[in-house]
Structure formats: C-alpha cells, structure tokens
Write a structure and sequence with these properties.
The structure holds 3 protein chains of 3 kinds. By secondary structure, chain A is α+β, with helices and mostly antiparallel strands. Chain A is built from 12 helices and 14 strands. A 5-stranded antiparallel beta sheet of chain A has the order 4-5-10-6-7. In chain A, strands 11-12-13-14 form a 4-stranded antiparallel beta sheet. Chain C folds into 3 domains: 25-33 and 488-635, Aldehyde Oxidoreductase, domain 4, CATH 3.30.365.10; 36-144 and 203-295, Aldehyde Oxidoreductase, domain 3; 377-472 and 640-788, Aldehyde oxidase/xanthine dehydrogenase, molybdopterin binding domain (Aldehyde Oxidoreductase, domain 4). Classes of the chains: A alpha+beta, B alpha+beta, C alpha+beta. The interface between B and C is large, with 57 and 59 residues.
C-alpha cells in the first residue's frame, strides 16, 4: 500500500501556491496535516501529481482574537486548538469537540483547515464551523473572499473552494455571555466517526433556550443545520413535550443517509435521541 | 527510480541529512533508510498505532506523514527512548506484568504511554485506556497494559520527594 | 571445584507454577524484535499482486506488456506461468468422508472465485514500483454470477461454483445419539432459536509476511516466514515445488501474532516462493492491510437452527441443531475448512449431561474469502448455541441461570465421561468452576444491584457461559486423514561447555510464552537454574521436526518433549559425574546446576566443571566412555485423541435501550487448564482470548454486498476491540491435571475465545429481559438491538 509517485513543493508564500496551481491545475493538491490525504494516497484513491506543503505558510498560522472575532489560521493543528485558552474561552464548542476527533496521535498532526477543506460529513469540525457560524477566509490569485460556513459545505467532500483557492483562516464570532456549546456523539468505539453526532450552541436561561443552533453530522452528505427542530423549542420554557416536538420536527430537517454500519432509520432514531440529550445538557449549563 | 529530495532532521537526538524518495512515509524512512525497525507498520492507514513515534515531542503516526514533510523536525522512536533510559521503569513494568505478547504493538504502546505519563502523572485506568485507544493489540486484551502503565505511574509518584510536584 | 562444600536442598516443584516473566520479551520492549519485514537480503525484490475485483469472474485475457516495461520491474507472472513449477492443491482429508474441493493454484488460472484472489504477481525493486506496475496490467474479465448467501447456496437455482463437483455442498455430516425425537415429543419445555455468528477474521497486527530465498546451485529454498508451523510449510514447499525436503528451510523469526491464521497455505506465499525460484533472488511479500482483509482466512459465518428439550425441573434432555456454514470457494489446504463446522456440531451441549442429541452440518461453498481455522475453532458456535438455549430454558422455567447450569453439568462422580457426540472427558471441574465464579463476582449482590438500578431505568445484564475447550490434539486431528501435519514434537537438549543448557524445540513462539515455559520445564526437570537455559524455536534446520503451535498444544505436548529430554540429559550428566567422582550415579543428584550428594545435598561439582572435563579433558575419563551431552527426545500425545479443558465465564454490562449501545463493565473467567505452568502467561492467554470473543460479540463482522464484495475491508471499517471499550477481565483457576502426562498441563490458548461471546449474548439478553425481547445474531450492534426493541422498523 504505497502512494503513487508525485512531485512535492514546500511553499513559503501564498503567491507560490497560486503559481503552482496555475501550472498544475487540479493535478496539484495541498497537504496540510495529511491525516486524511496520506492514507488516501497510500490506498491510491488519491494520486495528485503535485503536493503543495503549506506547513511553513505564515499566513495560515496562529490563533488571535480581533474584537468580536476569533481568527484561527487554517494550518492550526488540533493539538494547538485543544491547548489554546483563547479557543476555550471564545469558542467553547470547538474546545469540547477536539477530544472527540480520532485519537491523540492524529490530533497532533491534523489541522483545523484541513478538516474543513476535506468536508467529510461525518467529521466534527465542519459541524462545529456551521454551528458557530464560522466564516471561511479564502485566497486565490485574484484576492481574498469570505464564505459563510452555511455556503461553504456543498456536498460530500464538496466545498466552495474552487481550483486555485487556499483556505487561509476561519473567523468565528466570539461566544457572547452565556452562550453555550455542546457536542455529543454516539460512537461504538472511542475515536470512531460517530453513528450520529450533534454540535449545538445556544443560550439557556429560566428553562428556555435562545438562539439554539443544532448541527447534525454523520447523517448526510454535509453537516445539517436542524432549523425546524430549533423552531419547535423557540416558545417559552422547554418541556418534555417541546423536546418531543423538536425530535419529531427532525424529519422535516433531514432524511439521513445510511452507511455500512447504520441504516437511515437507525440514524434518524439516534438523531432524535441525541437531540433530547443535547437539549438537556444545554439547559443544565444555564 | 523515484526522485529523491534531501531533508535535514533530528532522529533520536542525532541531526542528519538524508535523501528521501518523495513518496516514502516516515515509517518506511525510519525502517528502511535508518534501520530503526522498532517502528512497526500494521495498517498504513493510520488506524492501528503500531507506527507511533514522536514528532517534535508529540505522538504521531509515522505512516501518515511523508518523510519529506519532516524536514526540520525532531523525531523520537522507541529505540531512542529506550537507549536514553528514561522509560526503563515503564519497560520493566511491561515486562513484569507480561503486558506484551507478540510485541508488534509494543513500541507504539510504550511511546504513547510515555507521553501520557509525562502529561498526566497519575492517570486513572479510564484515562490510560483512552490514550491507548488508538493502539490496537490483538494479544493481550489490554488489561495487562493498563496495569503496567498504572503501576509505573504509582511507582513514579512514590519515588518523587514530598512536595516535588 | 567451586561448588564444593555447600548443601542444596531438593526443590519441591522447581519453576513449575511460578509467574516467571518472559526473558525474550525484553528484546521486544527495547524495539529489538526481529520480524520478517525487518529483514533485508541482498538483491531482494518485493512482490505485489493484481487481484480480482469480482467475486466470481472468468479471465479472458491478461496483458502484462506495459507492466513489464516499468523500470525496476524484474518479473510479471500469471497463474499459468506459476502452475508450470508449482503443483496445485486440494483441501480435502480422508477423515472427513465426502469432503470435496477443487484444485487451487497460487494465482487464479481460468477463473477468480473471490474478490481479492491474486491473479498476477509482480516482483520489483521496491513495493511501490511493484504496485505501480500492477496498475499497468490489463485483465479482461467476464463477470460470472456469484454465490453470496450461504442459505441459498444449495438451492437448485443457485449456480454451482465448481461444476465438476456437482453442487455447492463441500461437506455434510449428521450425528445422532440416544432418542432425541422421543425427548422432544415428551418433554415439558422446548426452547428454540436461530443463532447467527458473523463472519470475522484474525487481524494479526503483523500482517502475513515472508521472504523466499532460492539458491539455484543446490536448489535450496530458505523461507523466512511469519508462520506458526515451519515444518508443515517445509513439507508443502518441498512437495509442491519438487524440492528435496532437507533443502527447504523455513525460519520463523519473531511472529507478530498468529491465532490460527498463519498456518494455512495461501496463494501469495506460494507465488512469492515461485518468483524466487524463477528469478534466483530473494523475494519479499508483506501483505498490506487491505490485502489482509481480502485474503487472510476468515472464520465463523455460521447460522444454526437449534432447539433444546428441557424437563420441568430444568434437566436438559436433548438438543437438535442444524448448522449451515459458508467457507468461501475452496476448502483451505492442508487442514481443510470442514473442521470448524465439525467441531461446532460435536461440541454442542458439551458441558452437560444431556443424553440425546441430533446434529446436522452443511458446509457450503460461496464466492467470498475462504474460511478456515482461527482461534477457538467451532467453540464459540457450539458455546453460543448451547448457552443461549440454556438461558432461554432458565427464563422459561424461572430458574436462575447459574442454578440451571449447576443442575446439568457433568458432575465429579461421572468421570471419565463420554459425551453424546463421542467426546471423551478424562476429568473436568464444572461444579468447582461454577462455585468459584459465583463467589468471585459476588453474584448475589450483583443481582441486587441490577434490580435496584432497573428501577432507575438503568439496564444492566449478567450473562454466563460454561464451556469446554479441545486441547493437545494428537494424530486424530489431521494425520489420520492423510495430512502431513505432525502431531508429535521434539526437543534437543545440550549441555554447553560452560555448564549452561541449550534447548531446541519444535513448538514455536508467537508471544504466548512458549520459550519461557519450555525453559521452566527444562530447568525443573534437569535441576538447573532457570537463567542457565536458553530455548531456540522456529527453524526447521536447527530444531527437531514437529507439529509446532496450534490448537492449544504447545505447553502440553511441547512441554512433554522438554520434560523427557531433561530427564534423559540429567541421567547422562549424573552418569558422567558418577564416573568423575567415582560414585554410583544413584547417590548423586543435580540441583540448581550443581552435582550434589543425593542424601546430604552436599555440593560436589558444578556443571561448568563437568562440561570442562567432558569436552576438553575426556582423556581423564575411562577408555571407551563417550559422554552424551546432547540428547533428543520426542513425544506423541498418549491415551486420548485430544484433551479437554473447561471453565465458565461471566459478563456484566450496561445496555442503553435508547441508543442500543452496550458498555462492558466487567468480565470474569474461571478455567481449568490442568497444571498451571506459569500463571502470568496463562492469565494473559485467557484475557487475550476473551477480548477476541468480545470483539465477536460486539464489533467484528466482515460485511458483504449482494455482489460478493467485502465492504468493510479496512481497519477503519472493520471494528476491532480497542482499549476504551474493553473491561477489566478477572481470571481465576481450578486445576485438574491430566493423568496422561507427568506434566499434567492441558492447554489454554482458546478458552477465553470459546466462551466470551456467549457470555455477552446472555448478558445482553438479560439486560433486554424487561422488554421481553432477545437477540441471537452476533455481533450485537446498536442497530440490531434497536430493531429488537422495536425502536426502528425491522428490515
């Protein structure tokens, strides 16, 4: 199980990346942490002609707070996110999500931007980005643009990234006072992709939830924002009946896709269970 | 033949310059170019943990990194850790407790457990199970490995003078 | 004579029963293991294979031209090329009457019969180049209908995989004892269920690996091979390549796990040897993980319709089972794929006094990866069916599950005892094991806790599985059927001039501790210190011929070779010492490596002095005295076709009825392997075995689609038991030594795997009991549990 031959370039500026993309087109691929791309290449599912190593691109590094925005460089490794006090404070959901990603030895290399650009619908990071209303900062030879998470994830491993684009950073609104972030997964084994996962944000007070966002992952071709379920919880203090309504409303939000271990019906059931548990957890936080 | 590129890196404390084939993984580089065969290859897709080494101080899968990506990095393998003597107690606990059978997972287990004990000197059994949950062992059933790591933590705690931590 | 003067008392049991850590494990802990893939030979090539993408397809044409042109490629060979130098094989044996299979070649010649079957082999400078070249091979295929479902494999409309065999039935067997029809007609309670056991595979962490190194001048073939059975492979290589047996050397270096899967004949291994013979260069094959999933033997894949007749008092009167098992397109060579089914239907009801039995076995061909012997062959099937029915009966009769077992197990006064399927039990200890596990797990308070938690909506389950395990197989296993699989073993023991001892044995080491146990036995029966004994295994050129390691035979049979050799060498050493000391050898003894006076224990000379005189100054000995300082002894299992061990396991778990997830809380095992030679090693054999059974219960299953394609053939998708989900496993023992050997050891390699899954099944069903539902299909996935609970529609 060895990768096909390829060329390799370690770049130190975005301009170099753009030039290489201009030369190689979609035969070039960016390698960040490589935790998804390297095994895909070993299995020869992916066989790029050129790997562009962005590990030394300064523009993609660092975690910083600019006013009400948290800016996370695309090349930030999971382990850095996990240990960042800034992330813990400004994006508690993200902080809580990191330990659920695979295993320690993967988190030491895998990157935030890599996961987003890969857009695996079963991954935690795209769901968190959507729940947190993150904005992707994308650069190409023409300049820079911003794409909201809701528009960024477009299908199975499909994003708004066009050929020649580089995901540079992610901007996340800093969590306001009382804003909670909860993530739960139903997994058969620790570190596995979830049968169903749910990343949620919301403010709890007096038994009520304001502005909740429920993003399911592992249920479709991309992370799914469950707006109907959120609406069902909108009025007044949350009762078991509200929760049941929200669970029923999930059927309008999405019809899950099955995978080798779980049928769509199982996923739909597990999504309902998870919603109930996550709402309770959000309320407990206050 | 494959094109090669030079890389400069530190392996087990020794700085070196080597020509590496571009598509060679770090695991194959360590094993085939440097003869460091403690790093085992069990799946080549990042799941089994047999190839776990430390890159710049943190555990990582040597099969999920091309050697060429390690230019400038400091790599530590079980050979280096064993020769330094710093995990002698952990190795002895594994031996005493028979926490290995075929030995194929053992390097990865030791490298992983060593990082845990550095960062969390008194881990619970659950925490030990959690950190090694990315390392597959078909022989032991894990119980003895958890015992050995736990025993090492306890012994280290006892041997440290009062108030040293 | 440095040892003179001090007194040494005789040791009571020596090193037998001591928890001695494995000396050879130190090397592994330093990262200095030497596995096959760690070896590099001069001019070595690497092989990769083009494989069938279809479950069943005809090869119309193969174009290898572009592959040959890839720089660095040394050879590209097809099935026809290799068939010219390698005899095909047929996996049948005489003691399975009617067993049939088709000739199998290293690489498919006309047809491929499972997805992943090797078709073209390419040897190149590196594995990467060999894989590059594989991509350039063009095979023209005609896809054929695939036989996928074993339940319809025998239906008239299903195509026959090997036309010349007539049908897809590889082997059938019917057993009957007593009057099962009467028992079922007259009894108060009949429970019945259809049990399904998923197809799984061994997943040794070290993949299958070998380096074949052919020397054309003398036609010598050396194979460095990660194998359990070097002698069997020596025989296979010699016969199928037409080589002189003594010129074939198989060396097993450190082997990274085996569990039965590293003793079968695989096409890739044969093709690798063929390439070395054709090229006169060393050739290495290391299966990558994706290849492993498609070509390592699979196992289980049984569906059993079973019923049990039970009296109103809970007495088991009869069982009636029909086991259908799918084995892939070929019976695997040389041990056949009939063994698992055969053992499954013979082990049914094994722990119990059940007088009546009817069993039917159907072993069928299908277009999936071949199945064959993997740890605990057949045991988990028989145990799962029997123990599942016992729990159903207990529930029906409102009996405690331990109580119904207590009422039915074969009791102490009944031994020796023969089961209705003809198995002979010398002496087992079911009653003691049940009593011990009850105390060990604090059973009654666990039940109280369970009841208390249920009121809070927490669903815990407790499940038991009584089991028996076949060990120490003699020629009845394979030899009588015509297989060239040795059931005897050997040991060569040598006194080094330094007084140290070297012991070469035919049983092999894959981490279970064979070398350590052999050293313990040698040191004990020779009368030397443990650290003065070195054991060598795994080299057909340096060790005596034998069966090696499988079916839990290493300690019981291999141990006897060492015991016999140690006793013989001890006699020779005492004879020599008697001559040197001018005393009768019967007045001397060997203790802790020192020749002592037998009555006083007074030290007279150490073995280094004996060695010095014997090897370097034999001129000081009487004329015509030729000291024999090397002895060889073999051992043939005596008295029984094979031995039996027994035990009981218990599982404690929590089931979440909302998610269908199961959390294992604790697992207990009480087992009886006879004399415990080394408790440290025995306990870890049990624990490791248990976890393979827990994998079967909750996680492991080779999934196939309708086209016969395996859809979870990677380590990410085939779920193995990992540390976070595994419980602590508490182990205790009862010891009933076999009287057929002075060692008394019976073997322990498969006990854990035999019963663990059944215990989990019963615990899952105990947890589900309040919902009046139960499950009998392994693994117990969340989806299956939710379906049973009616949370999702049944499929």
């Amino acid at each position: 199980m060895k990768a096909s031959a390829f060329d390799y370039a370690r770049v130190e500026s975005l301009e170099e990346v753009f030039a290489l993309f201009a030369e190689y087109g979609d035969e070039a691929r960016i390698i960040a942490g490589g935790q998804t791309l390297v095994p895909a290449m070993a299995m020869r599912v992916a066989a790029p002609a050129l790997l562009i190593d962005i590990s030394r691109l300064e523009a993609l590094q660092g975690i910083a707070r600019n006013g009400d925005r948290l800016r996370i460089g695309a090349f930030t490794r999971y382990v850095e996110l996990q240990h960042s006090p800034l992330v813990a404070e400004a994006a508690p959901l993200l902080h809580r999500a990191i330990p659920l990603i695979a295993h320690e030895a993967i988190r030491s290399r895998g990157t935030f931007g890599g996961s987003l650009a890969n857009a695996d619908p079963a991954s935690e990071m795209p769901a968190c980005a959507l729940a947190l209303e993150a904005v992707m900062v994308i650069a190409n030879a023409e300049g820079e643009r911003r794409v909201a998470a809701a528009d960024f994830f477009q299908g199975l491993y499909q994003t708004a990234l066009e050929p020649g684009d580089v995901l540079v950073a992610v901007e996340i609104p800093v969590a306001q006072d009382g804003m909670q972030g909860v993530i739960e997964e139903l997994v058969r084994r620790q570190g596995d992709y979830a049968m169903v996962g749910l990343a949620a944000t919301g403010k709890a007070a007096n038994g009520m939830l304001s502005g909740p966002r429920f993003v399911f992952f592992g249920v479709g071709d991309r992370p799914v924002l469950a707006t109907k379920a959120a609406e069902a919880l909108a009025d007044g203090p949350i009762s078991p009946e509200h929760i049941a309504e929200a669970q029923a409303a999930l059927a309008q939000d999405f019809t899950p896709l099955g995978d080798i271990h779980c049928s769509p019906a199982t996923k739909a059931h597990l999504a309902r269970v998870l919603l109930g548990r996550v709402v309770s957890r959000l309320l407990e936080h206050r | 033949m494959d094109p090669t590129f030079p890389i400069t890196l530190t392996v087990n404390g020794t700085e070196m310059v080597r020509e590496v084939p571009v598509r060679q993984t770090l695991a194959d580089f360590l094993r085939q170019t440097l003869g460091l065969t403690a790093t085992h290859v069990g799946c080549e897709h990042g799941v089994c943990g047999a190839c776990t080494v430390r890159i710049d101080g943190r555990i990582a899968r040597a099969c999920l990194t091309f050697a060429i990506q390690c230019d400038g990095a400091a790599i530590e393998t079980l050979e280096g850790m064993a020769e330094s003597g710093k995990i002698a107690d952990l190795q002895q606990a594994f031996h005493r407790r028979n926490a290995l059978q075929c030995g194929f997972c053992t390097s990865g287990m030791l490298v992983t457990a060593a990082q845990l004990l550095e960062e969390n000197p008194r881990p619970s059994r659950e925490e030990i199970r959690e950190i090694i949950s990315g390392n597959y062992c078909r022989c032991t059933g894990y119980h003895a490995i958890v015992d050995a790591v736990e025993e090492t933590a306890e012994a280290r705690a006892k041997s440290e003078p009062e108030g040293a931590r | 004579m440095s040892a003179e003067g001090k007194a040494i008392r005789p040791a009571a049991t020596g090193y037998i029963g001591q928890p001695v850590p494995r000396p050879n494990a130190r090397r592994l802990l330093e990262g200095r293991g030497r596995y096959t893939d760690d070896m590099v030979l001069n001019r070595m090539l690497h092989v990769a294979f083009v494989r069938s993408p279809y479950a069943h397809a005809r090869i119309l044409a193969i174009d290898t031209e572009a592959a040959r042109a890839v720089p660095g490629v040394a050879a590209v060979v097809t099935g026809r090329d290799i068939a010219e130098i390698c005899q095909p094989w047929v996996g049948v044996l005489g003691h399975f009457p009617g067993l049939k299979s088709a000739p199998q070649y290293p690489l498919a010649v006309e047809r491929s019969c499972w997805q992943g079957e090797p078709v073209v082999a390419i040897a190149a400078e590196t594995r990467a180049i060999a894989e590059d070249a594989c991509e350039k091979v063009l095979v023209e295929w005609e896809e054929l209908p695939a036989v996928v479902d074993m339940q319809t494999a025998l239906a008239p409309e299903t195509p026959v995989i090997h036309e010349e065999l007539g049908d897809n039935l590889a082997f059938g067997l019917e057993l009957k004892a007593g009057s099962p029809e009467d028992a079922f007609a007259k009894t108060a309670v009949v429970v019945e269920e259809t049990f399904s056991f998923g197809r799984h595979t061994g997943v040794t962490l070290e993949p299958r690996s070998l380096i074949a190194d052919f020397e054309p001048g003398e036609r010598r073939l050396t194979v460095h091979h990660a194998t359990q059975t070097p002698y069997q492979m020596q025989d296979v290589y010699a016969r199928h390549f037409g080589l002189d047996e003594e010129k074939v050397r198989v060396v097993a270096p450190d082997v990274g796990g085996s569990f039965g899967l590293k003793l079968h004949v695989y096409g890739e291994e044969m093709a690798t040897c063929a390439l070395s013979i054709l090229l006169g260069r060393p050739v290495k094959f290391v299966a990558d993980r994706l290849e492993s999933f498609l070509t390592d033997i699979h196992a289980r894949d049984h569906q059993v319709r079973a019923r049990m007749a039970v009296s109103a008092e809970g007495e088991i009167l009869a069982m009636d089972v029909e086991d259908v098992t799918g084995i892939g397109p070929y019976s695997v060579y040389p041990r056949t794929s009939a063994v698992e089914g055969n053992q499954a239907i013979r082990l049914m009801g094994g722990p119990y006094r059940m007088p009546n039995y009817h069993g039917v076995l159907k072993v069928v061909f299908q277009n999936k990866t071949p199945t064959c012997q993997y740890r605990a062959v057949g045991h988990p099937i028989a145990c799962g069916v029997t123990e599942g029915l016992v729990d159903m009966a207990a529930r029906r009769l409102n009996l405690d599950p331990l109580e119904i077992r207590r009422r039915n197990v074969v009791t102490a006064e009944m031994y020796p005892h023969t089961s209705p399927t003809g198995y002979f039990f010398e002496r087992l200890s079911h009653e003691e094991c049940i009593a011990k596990i009850e105390a060990m797990m604090n059973y009654s308070s666990l039940r109280e806790e369970q009841a208390r938690l249920r009121e809070q909506g927490i669903y815990r389950g407790i499940g038991f599985a009584t089991f028996i395990e076949i060990t120490n197989p003699g020629p009845a296993f394979y030899g009588v059927g015509g297989a060239r699989v040795s059931s005897q073993d050997g040991c060569v023991m040598k006194l080094e001039p330094s007084g140290r001892v070297r012991c070469s044995v035919s049983v092999t080491e894959q981490g279970q501790g064979t070398e350590t146990v052999m050293a313990q036995i040698a040191a004990t029966h020779l009368g030397v210190k443990l650290d003065s004994v070195t054991v060598l295994t795994g080299d057909t050129q340096a060790t005596p011929y034998g069966g090696a390691t499988w079916a839990s035979r290493g300690a019981g049979i291999g141990g006897m070779t060492v015991l016999r050799a140690a006793q013989a060498l001890r006699g020779k050493l005492l004879e020599l010492a008697g001559i040197i000391l001018q005393r009768g050898p019967e007045t001397l003894d060997l203790r802790e490596g020192v020749i002592v006076e037998a009555d006083t224990g007074m030290a007279r000379m150490d073995l280094a002095e004996l060695g010095r005189i014997a090897y370097f100054r034999p001129d000081t000995l009487p004329p015509d005295f030729h000291p024999d300082l090397t002895v060889a002894r073999h051992y043939v299992p005596q008295g029984l076709p094979f031995a039996f061990t027994n035990g009981i396991q218990a599982s404690h778990l929590e089931l979440d009825p909302e998610t269908g997830l199961v959390r294992l809380l604790d697992h207990w095992v009480v087992e009886d392997c006879g004399t415990i030679l080394n408790p440290l090693l025995v306990d870890e054999q049990v624990r490791g075995g248990v976890v393979q059974g827990l994998g079967a219960a909750l996680f492991e299953e080779c999934l196939y689609n309708e086209a016969g394609q395996m859809i979870n053939g990677s380590l990410a998708d085939y779920l193995l038991p990992m540390a976070s989900e595994m419980p602590d496993i508490h182990v205790d023992h009862v010891s009933t030594p076999t009287q057929f050997t002075p060692l008394g050891a019976k073997g322990v390699g498969e006990a854990g795997t035999a019963g663990a899954a059944a215990a989990v099944m019963n615990a899952v069903n105990d947890a589900l009991a309040p919902f009046q539902v139960s499950l009998a299909q392994m693994p117990f996935t969340p989806e299956r549990i939710l379906r049973a609970l009616g949370k999702i529609p049944s499929s």
